[in-house]
Design a protein that fits this description.
about 575 residues, alpha+beta, Nucleotidyltransferase, domain 5, Methane Monooxygenase Hydroxylase, Chain G, domain 1, 3 domains, seven-stranded mixed β-sheet, five-stranded mixed β-sheet, disordered N terminus
């Protein structure tokens, strides 16, 4: 399908955990074409690594294929934006990769976001109680960059001495495309302890420019043993920062343009982390009726503060904004201008959601046979499981599907608890196992896991609201948002309506917004969001009081599973003393 009227097209690129994707959008936010390309990943215990060279090749392939699918000529692409996981990239003075791997493999120069090698370093950093930690929920996570940097310095001295630039992956992509190593307020504030509000009094988004990076707390870096990173005007971690969507350098370099199949000079916007791009791609997706009635008595700025975006993929990020800074124990933030410029961002999260569902399903003995059945029906295994659950509820005369799991309870902390407990040592729990190995047993485990994930979201929403937020509406995007059962369970369990976007590819749209702003098609990110975001279906909580009563009871069991784990942990620690 050609771009509507042959008009301007915005290109968004997203590098996720397993794939690089590209999507083209018209001036109304309609998706014209998308393509993806796989990327390599190495996993060895807690160490999870990737290659920036491999990722760039995948990005180039995805962009070329997306342009072909959208029938978009290079000259029609007028703006480009990048989003990516918050993985850590190491390059030398020439931009070549530097290994961060025990293996010494020079290709492996990225510590992936979900890598947990730096748990010990995170604990030591947090023990110092630095003032900057209050802006990340009271402590850094091993998924943030400071602990990972400390791990490399302590374990890979040769690599440490060779690195000229440490960059978040989305910043590296923009640097690779433009040659400009200005960092984003999104990446630096959310993952590097950069204090973005240092710019709050001096600059507004409309002043768009590279800002001297005055938000680094040099005392913090020196205290944790990384003082060498703030030497030389912080060149290794960022001398200048900019609001997301700020145009970088002179746009796309000739070399990068040739590799991507685009024209040199195309404006490239300062980047976003992928989850935050999802927030930008969906947060203004408000149904017309709601915007005309329910919100008429509220200011525009207040209305957006009632929403929380769930970016549901391998993990889930829970994004909410406020005009005032809200300090919430165990929840990352408040981050100034890290997603919507000039708003404070609160960022909750669950480290394994899509990854957990895959794990539960793929490791069940019934999975291979069920996968074959699904393939023969041209369905996903999850569509088939949803169908099996409906059939089971009918067979057992259950009035609602959720009741099937009355004896099965899941604590979904298989990769720790990011929010609101901030406990990377938390473990997953399945309560109610039997000797069953059939597909119905798998369906029950799958449903109980979805519910456990949704109870985790309820815990995050309740915790945020108890500390000053007023969240009453959820917006969901990402792969799991396409699963109707997953979304309905979340609506029933949280009691919030869930708005789904018109376009499935919200992260790509958020990245494309950056290109549109860089191209000066909109004054700022939120102006672009209001035009390019659009609502699709709205999923409401069940009106059946029995459903609420059931989930309230299961939620209390969910909360007790963690308390029991803490008790068990203490008992065993005492026994081993």
């Amino acid at each position: 399908m050609p771009p509507a009227g042959g008009g301007a097209v915005f290109l968004g690129v997203d590098v996720g955990t397993g794939r690089a994707r590209a999507g083209l959008f018209d001036e109304k936010g309609k998706l014209l074409g998308t393509a993806s390309s796989p990327i390599q990943i190495w996993k060895e215990k807690d160490c999870i690594e990737q290659s920036s060279t491999d990722i760039w090749h995948a990005v180039c392939a995805a962009v070329k294929n997306a342009c072909s699918v959208a029938n978009a000529a290079p000259e029609s692409v007028i703006g480009l934006g990048f989003a990516a996981t918050c993985s850590l990239v190491a390059v030398d003075a020439d931009g070549a990769p530097v290994s961060i791997s025990w293996s010494g493999d020079a290709r492996r120069n990225i510590i992936v976001w979900m890598d947990h090698r730096a748990v010990d370093q995170a604990e030591r950093i947090n023990a110092r109680n630095s003032p900057v930690l209050q802006y990340c929920g009271g402590g850094v996570s091993p998924e943030m960059q400071a602990p990972k940097l400390l791990w490399v310095k302590e374990n890979l001295q040769e690599s440490w001495s060779m690195v000229c630039r440490w960059m978040d992956l989305s910043d590296w992509l923009a640097y690779r495309a433009t040659g400009d190593d200005t960092r984003s307020l999104c990446t630096t504030v959310c993952k590097w302890t950069y204090l973005g509000h240092a710019h709050m009094e001096q600059w507004k988004e409309s002043d768009s420019r590279d800002m001297e990076a005055c938000g680094w707390d040099e005392v913090f870096w020196e205290e944790i043993g990384l003082g060498d990173l703030v030497e030389g005007n912080r060149a290794k971690i960022g001398r200048s920062v900019a609001f997301p969507g700020h145009p970088l350098g002179s746009g796309l370099t000739a070399a990068a343009a040739k590799e991507l199949g685009l024209l040199p000079g195309i404006p490239v916007g300062t980047s976003l982390i992928d989850a935050h791009a999802g927030g930008v791609g969906v947060m203004e997706s408000v149904p017309d009726a709601e915007s005309k009635t329910g919100m008429s008595n509220e200011s525009d700025e207040q209305a957006i503060c009632h929403r929380m975006v769930l970016v549901c993929g391998t993990s889930t990020c829970h994004m909410a904004v406020s005009k005032s800074r809200l300090f919430i124990p165990g929840v990352w933030g408040p981050f100034w201008s890290a997603m919507v410029p000039e708003f404070w961002l609160t960022e909750g999260g669950q480290s394994a959601t899509g990854a957990l569902l895959d794990y539960i399903v793929e490791n069940h003995v019934a999975a291979p046979l069920l996968a074959n059945h699904a393939a023969s029906q041209s369905k996903s295994i999850y569509e088939l499981l949803n169908k099996i659950l409906l059939s089971m509820a009918n067979e057992q005369n259950m009035s609602f599907v959720s009741a099937l799991t009355q004896d099965t309870h899941v604590l979904p902390d298989f990769h720790g608890n990011r929010s609101p407990l901030a406990d990377p040592k938390s473990k997953g729990v399945i309560c109610g196992l039997t000797l069953d190995t059939n597909e119905k047993h798998l369906a029950l485990l799958y449903l109980a896991t979805i519910q456990g994930i949704a109870y985790g979201t309820r815990h995050i929403v309740e915790h945020c609201n108890a500390h000053g937020h007023k969240i009453d509406t959820l917006l969901a995007c990402g792969g799991l948002a396409k699963n109707s059962l997953y979304i309905q369970e979340h609506a029933d369990i949280t009691g919030c309506p869930i708005v789904l976007p018109r376009e499935n590819e919200s992260v790509l749209l958020g990245a494309a917004v950056l290109g549109a702003v860089a191209a000066k098609k909109f004054p700022g990110v939120r102006d672009a969001m209001k035009v390019l975001n659009a609502a699709g279906k709205v999923v409401y909580p069940s009106s059946d009081p029995r459903v609420k009563k059931y989930h309230d009871a299961k939620y209390q069991i969910f909360r007790s599973l963690y308390e029991q784990q803490l008790s068990n942990r203490a008992a065993m620690a005492q026994a081993l003393q």
